[in-house]
Amino acid sequence: MNAAVVDGVIEALRDRGELARDVLTPAWIAAAAADADSERRRMAASSMAVRGEETAELARLLEDPDRRVVAEACRAAGRVGSRASLDRIVRKLDDPALRSVVIESLTAYGARISGALGDCLADESLPMGVRRQIPRVLKLIRDQRSVDVLLKALSRPELSIRAAVLRALSHLRETAPRLDYGETFVTEQILHEARHYFELYSALDPFRNHKNTPTATGLLTRALEERLQQTIERLFHLLGLRYPGRYARGLRGSAAATAGAVFGRA
To answer: In which domain, by residue range, is 224 found?
Structure first.
């Protein structure tokens, strides 16, 4: 078997649905999916995408030991919109080697899975590495349902989740400005983050002289300063949602000026 030739045939059939279903039959796909040669298994997954129909072999190919096969199976699932495969694909967001393909594949499903992704984002039984990547998918699905899911997730207690959600919302605000970004709700989040900033600032104040000391107090001081910086970054993103463009950029000054501006105008 010449893999390049078979790949060429499969690619040539990509936009010829009826002919693709005649040539790339379920029987051929099943045989290729069970082959010991990983190239044949990869072609089986690719063939499903070209046919626009999944077969029973897709679930097995998504768990294949060869990452190239898994990547192609993810693309196929996204292309055909396989809801049965959604959970398996989402869990692969934790694999850095597959992450870009998984994000591309999930994005291909479109806005109809925004709600399901929101459920995954809130599911504390899922690994944090998976949940942190979900906003990267939602930001590419430019639909009000994605915005609504992300806005809801702003109240999550996990700081890393909130940071990822804010980055995704900022991206959507730039690429899809006509969507509704919930100004009232965002204002509440701005006030929440501003209060959190002042609480951290007050907690840090007695320890500032210990920042550079190799002690537990010095470690605590550096940790509090890092939290302060993260809070400021979240505030910038929130202000960009509430006051897009010039206002948020104009606040890139000191921490005190930023918090003061928040309380003064939000």
So the answer is: 183-266
